[in-house]
Write a structure and sequence with these properties.
The chain is of the alpha/beta class. Helix content is about 50%, strand content about 10%. It has 2 domains: about 375 residues, Protein-Tyrosine Phosphatase, Chain A, CATH 3.90.190; about 90 residues, no CATH class.
């Protein structure tokens, strides 16, 4: 990869006062998550991790990271500065690329400084981001691996550093699950701390935390079962602990929503075709919740709920922004599917020390790859009102006195929109969707001459197509 043609971007788009951004711990597990720390943020992490325990640091990023004046930065393609660079290949090649990146930065010095870009402000959709440039003096230049090595020789003695190069938003490559398993399978679950990091500490960090918790959960279940077998513990007591800690659904109002429960078509197909996935989903959901957002967890993203939440953002977005949200939603569906598969695999092979790899297990169940590839986009990508009701309103509007009846029509359209989105939670997104659908349907039922006039004015005056604007143009004198 030619780093000489890449831009250099700060890992944190906007100023983050906390040098260890989004640092948190999973309730009940020695598993920590964090965004890319500033160099002075590692002390905070080291202070939180128990000193008398072994520790593993999972770096979930493929892209190389270098530190300049204590702040992390990474290369980006000049043509797409908002997207992380995907780097296929072996982790050793990725580590070598980081050394190359540091060397490249050292060679770019001009008057002791380099040009770095950053986002002007935070925005979830990359299409909404605007970058600015600034000159940064080259001081304290070093690679992320070099910083972590120093951490293992100092504040966190014996720290084991493992790169887990998942693709952003995805649970691929499958081999990454085995990297996490191999790092943890011979450890004591309650005595081995795990720190997981990515750029913001959101998607990839949460995935690594969830996988770590699944492994630790299976290890703890194995220990409890051995206690029962040897007569140390009562079977009913152990089963109660296992259910409450590793399987019981979280108490939440969200449980009344099938989509927030993860009951999508492809997930239901997985549970139906692979019966063991029912228990796998229970464990995956439990670990996803405690690694996710409040009130169940202390994290930044719920790997299950984010699917439909992102889908709603797609619904509410303008057409030019929808492609990003749709791709993100599909990636999240695929990721959730794989987490359930991994939990199912872990429940089957964890007790024996993970003698079979996850990739080998997926090879034996290769139909699952076809299942998710064919089913990950099986979502309702658009909604429309009841056509018979729309036709009734069209008859009302198609009359000479349509303006006098506009209030009646708008009231009916709002009621119909509300019914169309009855399953969505209240909030800005639902309101936006209702207004968009009301506006679109209103334009569809207008008399042809009125619709043509309104569309012409919208184009000529370059006006935003929103409900208030359209209604204003309808009632305006012709």
């Amino acid at each position: 990869m030619d780093l000489g043609t890449c831009s250099v971007k700060l890992c944190h788009s906007v100023a983050i006062p906390d040098p260890a951004p989004n640092f948190r711990k999973v309730p009940g597990f020695p598993v920590f998550g964090v965004g890319q720390p500033a160099e002075d943020g590692f002390a905070k992490i080291a202070e939180a991790v128990p000193k008398d325990e072994a520790a593993v640091w999972f770096n979930m990023r493929q892209e190389p990271v270098a530190y300049v004046k204590g702040m992390p930065c990474t290369p980006r393609k000049t043509t797409s500065p908002h997207d992380n660079i995907e780097i296929p290949g072996k982790t050793a090649d990725m580590d070598a690329l980081e050394l190359k990146f540091v060397k490249e930065l050292a060679g770019r010095e001009k008057d002791g400084s380099i040009e770095i870009i950053k986002d002007k402000e935070e925005a979830e959709n990359p299409m909404d981001r605007e970058e600015i440039k600034e000159s940064v003096k080259v001081e304290g230049l070093k690679g992320f691996n070099q910083v972590l090595k120093g951490l293992g020789e100092g504040a966190m003695p014996g720290l084991v550093v493992v790169k887990v190069p998942f693709n952003e938003e995805k649970a691929l490559p499958e081999e990454c699950f085995d990297i996490i398993v191999n790092a943890l399978k011979n450890t004591v679950p309650s005595k081995t701390s795990t720190v997981v990091s990515s750029q913001l500490g959101k998607g990839r960090t949460t995935l690594g935390m969830t996988a770590s918790c699944i492994i630790k959960a299976v290890q703890m279940i194995t220990e409890l079962n051995k206690m029962v077998e040897t007569g140390i513990a009562n079977k009913e007591w152990a089963e109660g602990i296992i259910f409450k800690t590793f399987e019981e659904p979280a108490e939440s109002e969200d449980n009344t929503d099938a989509h927030l429960r993860g009951e999508f078509e492809v997930i239901k197909e997985l549970v139906e075709k692979l019966p063991a996935a029912k228990k796998g989903k229970e464990m995956a959901d439990k670990m996803i919740d405690i690694c996710g957002v409040a009130p169940e967890g202390t994290g930044m993203q719920n790997l299950r709920k984010c699917i439909i939440q992102t889908k709603y953002k797609y619904d509410a977005a303008t057409e030019d922004r929808q492609s990003v949200w749709k791709n993100m939603t599909i990636n999240y569906m695929e990721r959730y599917f794989y987490v359930i598969c991994f939990a199912t695999y872990a429940r089957e092979f964890g007790a024996g020390g993970f003698q079979k790899t996850f990739v080998a297990w997926m090879d034996e169940h290769s139909n699952l790859r076809d299942m998710i590839n064919q089913g990950k986009d099986k979502l309702e990508w658009s909604r429309s009102m009841d056509q018979s009701e729309v036709n009734n309103l069209r008859n009302v509007v198609n009359s000479p006195d349509y303006k006098a009846k506009l209030g009646q029509v708008m009231t009916s359209l709002y009621k119909m929109s509300h019914k169309t989105f009855h399953d969505m939670p209240r909030g800005v997104i639902k309101d936006t969707l209702m207004r968009k659908l009301t506006c679109k349907t209103l334009m569809d039922i207008l008399p042809d001459d009125v619709s043509t006039r309104v569309q012409k004015e919208l184009q000529e005056k370059k006006m935003t197509v929103d409900l208030d604007t359209v209604v204003g143009l309808i009632v305006a004198p012709a």
